[in-house]
Amino acid sequence: MRADAEQNRERILEVARTALKASSAASLQSIAKAAGVGQGTLYRHFPSREALLIAVYRHDLDELIAAAPALLREQSPREALRSWFERLAAYGRIKHGVAEAVEAATRADLSGEYYAPVVQAITLLLDAGKAAGTLRTDVDAEDVLLLVGFLWRNDFGAEREARTRHLLSVVMDGLRP
Fold this sequence. Notes:
The protein has helices at about 5-20, 30-35, 40-45, 50-75, 75-95, 100-105, 110-130, 140-145, 150-155, 160-175. By secondary structure, it is an all-alpha fold. The longest helix has 26 residues, at about 50-75.
């Protein structure tokens, strides 16, 4: 792909992420306009709304997975795990707002494609905390995924942020050795 075409694609994705975060009903026309490209350019990169939603879903999950090692370089293992969960919560808020993207991704079987990398990211964070003695040793990534399922499944309305922070604190306290 030419450099300018790649830049257009990335700009469309970034604008789409922002637009869909604000409203799951954002139109492809409004996304193209905000990205500074014509509708033809948008459709060359993303031939349908579903294709754009799947690309946004992939991009967000790739960023989330890639964050784990970077957080470990910057923070203690326990803090890195908490920060990663906070990013997961933010992703859950966006995902919750664009259920259409989740449905499209499920039809494309991306949930299965990303399960193992997500488990690996959590395992990396847990193992670092276990080695540092700051996390209990009798849990694994799949246990933790079950515990934090509320991050993308709840609908607490206006109190969502506060409730999510509280429940995340309960989970982190439960992971102490």
